[in-house]
Amino acid sequence: MRRLHLIVGVTAVIAFLITGQLMRHHSPPMTALSDAVRLMHRSRHIYILAAGLLNLILGLYWQRRPRGWQFALQTAGSAFLVLAPLLLVVAFAVEPDRGFHEETLWSHAGLYSLFAGSMLHSVANAVFRQSARIAKKS
Q1: Distance, CA of 90 to CA of 71 (rounded, Å)
Q2: What whole-number distance in Å separates Cα of residue 33 and Cα of residue 87?
Q3: What pLDDT score does 26 carry?
Q4: What is the DSSP letter of 106?
Q5: Of 48-57, 59-68, 106-115, the least confident
Q6: How confident is the model over 42-67, as a mean pLDDT?
């Protein structure tokens, strides 16, 4: 699982760099676009970075939890976190041209995926640390 998060994290950071270059060399220039379209490009660009860095950090520090249900929470959280950069790259490609009037389903799904994955990993880790403290006191 660590390797998967590392690969996804590095790939997403590279995607962040590519989307930055796409914005820099956009035709017409980004400054010529409406504020709404420019904001949507930039926000999706930053979301990709957030998803990439979260996966990268998790790839560096992920440790399998011994209990079955904690490992299940970790696995579900990892699935959400691996999916998030893909959804956000699609959001970068599709949503800015639609503007704010259309639903922004791709970015919503990507951000909710980041949130769900982070919370699942947090719960699995917090419960593990608390049970380790209780065992240490005994």
Answers
A1: 29
A2: 24
A3: 79
A4: H
A5: 59-68
A6: 91
Residue the block writes with tokens 């904690």: 70
* The pLDDT of residue 132: 60
Cα 90 from Cα 78, distance rounded (Å): 19
For every residue of the chain, DSSP letters joined together read -HHHHHHHHHHHHHHHHHHHHHHHT-SS-GGGS-HHHHHHHHHHHHHHHHHHHHHHHHHHH----SSHHHHHHHHHHHHHHHHHHHHHHHHHHHHHHH-TTS--HHHHHHHHHHHHHHHHHHHHHHHHHHHHHHHHH-
The predicted pLDDT at position 137 comes to: 63
> Rounded to whole angstroms, how far apart are CA atoms 126 and 114?
18
Give the span between the Cα atoms of 58 and 6, in whole angstroms.
8
Distance CA 31, CA 73 (A): 44
How far is the first Cα of the chain from the last one, in angstroms, to the nearest whole number? 32
Cα(44)–Cα(107) distance, rounded to whole angstroms? 7
